[in-house]
Amino acid sequence: MMNLIGIVGTNSDQSTNRQLLEFMQKHFAEKANIELYEIKNLPAFNKPKDTTAPPEVQDLSDKIKEADGVIISTPEYNHSVPAILKSTLEWLSYTTQPLIDKPVMITGASYGRLGSSRAQSHLRQILDAPELKARIMPSSEFLVGLSLQAFDEDGKLADPNKVQELEEIFNEFIQFVDITKQLVKANPNKNKSKSFSWEKN
User: For the whole model, what pTM was predicted?
Assistant: First the structure.
């Protein structure tokens, strides 16, 4: 069975993005093991003298490297991703770079009608940076708008059409992970991290 890590892209204690990942964890239990990871206790990015990651960041990095793929669920704050998610990605890019060639699925829930569409677009741009270089699943935008009303008392997505949409996208992601593995395996030299320095760029 495929092993995935679901990153809760916020430090909010009451997050519908956490609810979304929890729903996915249960709903797709027969297809994949999804481990939820909280980033709210990670330190704010502060460029270290060397590229050594703090223990909390190293722990996340290890889990990403061990996983077959990553799901990031992000809310939208001021047309972008939360500061804690940006900070987390900065830690990963500057230190261990575990997202290079890692399949990533992006989801998002927000209180407004647009369902984090701008934040997801911004996140795609960030993940495409040379020191992150994730393999982002194309044409897979999954948005939960008006998210405070989107879940029932049992934490399930209430709209059956949304559930079907998520099922279709998730099934595509499972295939995307397999295809990405084959591509990376066929090009072993291409997936190595290139020497990158923020100071030189």
Answer: 0.92
